[in-house]
Prior knowledge:
Elements: H1 6-15, H2 20-33, E1 40-43, H3 45-60, E2 73-77, H4 104-111, E3 115-120, H5 154-161, E4 167-172, H6 178-184, E5 187-190, E6 210-215, H7 218-228, E7 257-262, H8 272-286, E8 291-296, H9 304-319, H10 337-348, H11 351-364, H12 370-393, E9 396-400, H13 416-421, H14 427-432, E10 436-444, E11 447-455, H15 460-470
Parallel strand pairs: 2-3, 2-4, 7-8, 7-9
Antiparallel strand pairs: 1-3, 4-6, 5-6, 5-10, 9-11, 10-11
Helix pairs in contact: 2-3, 7-15, 9-11, 9-12
The structure holds glutamine (GLN).
Amino acid sequence: MNSQTIEALVTQIKAGSLSVLKLVEDCYDKIEAAQSFDFIIAETKQRALERAKTLDQEIAQGKRSNKRLFGIPFIAKDNFLSYGAKTTAASKMLANFEAPYQATAITKLEDEGAICVAKSNLDAFAHGSSTENSDFMITKNPYDVTRVPGGSSGGSAVAVALQVVPFSIGTDTGGSIRQPASFCGVIGYKPTYGLVSRSGVIAMSSSMDTIGVFTNNIDDCQLVMDVMSGQDPLDSTTLDSKHKIVYPSLPSKSSQFKVAVIKNYLDDAVDPKVRASFNVFVSKLKSDPNIVLCEIDLQSLKYALAVYYVLGPAEIASNLGRYDGLRFGYSNPSDSIEETYLSNRTNGFGAEAKRRIMIGTYVLSSGYYDAYYKKAQKVRTIIVDNFKQAFLKHDFLIGPTVPTPAFKIGQKTKHSMDMYLSDIMTVAANLAGIPDINLPIDRANNLPVGVQIMANQTQDNQLLAFSKYLEGKI
Ligand code: GLN
């Protein structure tokens, strides 16, 4: 079914030639058939089937609808609060948590007729790059089950790669959409910071968290982003709706695309297969008369990972402070209040969350604040400025998304630094708040390789128009 665009599916549903119930039931059959990939935490079956029947009835009664996602099933990462199933963030801390309200992003999708069929696996609290850090299961890569799908939105990437649903949603704080998209050979979109409301999404690092989408084609990506983006009174960081993504695209302002290859992303750490695929991609751009290609040196990028792993944990330590197990979450009461906190947090959080809480608390503590947190903020400003300068001359910046194809399960779990290094090319976009997309370009040795394309803040429509231009050519 998913070889067709969402728009084509919606047209058939509205014409009465495709039943929503059948579409949704097909999704559950596919989830069942793909169980061994361990990508689903919970199904939202009862709610989904009821919604499907209601929509089918509307069609049968001859009601007209202009809902653009009418009857389209999707899967949400399990850090979006949602009705119909628990919301766990793949953490023991929230294993029994029933959300009292729903994320704005999901509500907006539902308001356009989309149906959430399941919640997907992730690294607990979205900390990780492989989905191995889930407290419940390890998701497998669709191309090689001995490898990871990437993370932290691994389950959502797998759902689209296996064509279980036409689209899935995820969060991206340091690469969690683009990196798994690259490992699973699908499109992964991370918008400008503030373009999509984060109300009802479990906070990780609030100055970098963004909401985005996985799809198999640009039209679907653009349509879903159109529905999800826009100002929300429930999230004061959302941008004015004049910046929202629009589908179909507006005509491009210029017929020439100025593109720069980020040289700093092509050093020795890049796997030869990734480098070879990327070089083929670059040679295709070079031969395109509508593309002006050059190289750029962004010196500050070499500090991006270090800055990310200071600022990220500082914000995580603060955001995870709310999990005390008193009002919600894992609870194992003891004699004193202090012991209760200790027991709830010791047992509820996994090792990675604790590591980040400790690093974050350390870099924010008196005596170390200036040396770590403040210094990192200053370097972040330099990185932001570096990008601003670059976008004065270039429309888009490109590079590989990840230095390697999908790695083996267990390969990077012993040393956290090994895992952190797989984010080395994705964190800068979050620090700068700019939009970034992963496009699959190759399957070297049957493992997907992706390229990332970045644009300046709020240039999301231009970025998607360019991605659309490239689709089919690369
Ligand atoms: N892999 C990165 C981390 O562990 C990014 C995670 C994310 O984007 N949620 O912090």
